[in-house]
């Protein structure tokens, strides 16, 4: 099937062009704030509306700075060595989830240090809202007709206008939107409704995202300048996601064991 015609520019104000991709980030941050405020209003949450706003702001900086650094160092380090100033050319595109995740973890640490809140509790409060941002971001990728999937003959395969080969491919951006976004959000939201050991919600996010991303990588076309790393199947996305699953399981076990012993994490 043909890719639906979508103008990547949502609207223009004079020479200023506002792209759908940028709006998707804004929608994701706004949704995180609204959901965070809702959770803060619950009895005994220990959070205020202002604290939620500050945390979302810290997280947004972590996503943008970490996402850019992650893309440059994980996916295009050679280009950075040739032109170090390219790091700051964010308008040319290039963001990495794994870099953004590291940036967000640093942002959580800075916020916890500033407010005196326990680090893992800060992370556990915020991570259930993160998949909403992932969903809007992946939909932005789809509207940009970028990061498409591998060649396929399934009935819903699409021919993307940015594909030089013009062959039908998996709309892997939508797979990621559903699995990393919608499904993971529902799992984390339901799981976090009841009190959990410190670090458990964050660990479940790590496991869930790592599994979802690794699965979708079998349908997603690897970056052209990287390709497959080994064996004709391993991709950079898998290499960065599989450790998330292992680490998440380890933290989950550690969290519940500490909780049984009454140890505060």
UniProtKB/TrEMBL annotation:
Transmembrane segments: 20-40, 52-74, 86-111, 174-192, 198-216, 228-256
This protein's GO CC annotations: plasma membrane
EC number: 2.5.1.145
Membrane topology label: Multi-pass membrane protein
Record keyword Cell membrane present: yes
Localization in the cell: Cell inner membrane
Positions that bind a 1,2-diacyl-sn-glycero-3-phospho-(1'-sn-glycerol): 138
UniProtKB keywords: Cell inner membrane, Cell membrane, Glycosyltransferase, Lipoprotein, Membrane, Transferase, Transmembrane, Transmembrane helix
Record pathway: Protein modification; lipoprotein biosynthesis (diacylglyceryl transfer)
GO biological process terms, semicolon-separated: lipoprotein biosynthetic process
Record GO terms (molecular function): phosphatidylglycerol-prolipoprotein diacylglyceryl transferase activity
Family: Belongs to the Lgt family.
Stated role: Catalyzes the transfer of the diacylglyceryl group from phosphatidylglycerol to the sulfhydryl group of the N-terminal cysteine of a prolipoprotein, the first step in the formation of mature lipoproteins.
Name of the protein in question: Phosphatidylglycerol--prolipoprotein diacylglyceryl transferase
Organism encoding this protein: Alcanivorax borkumensis (strain ATCC 700651 / DSM 11573 / NCIMB 13689 / SK2)
Taxonomic path: Bacteria, Pseudomonadati, Pseudomonadota, Gammaproteobacteria, Oceanospirillales
Gene: lgt
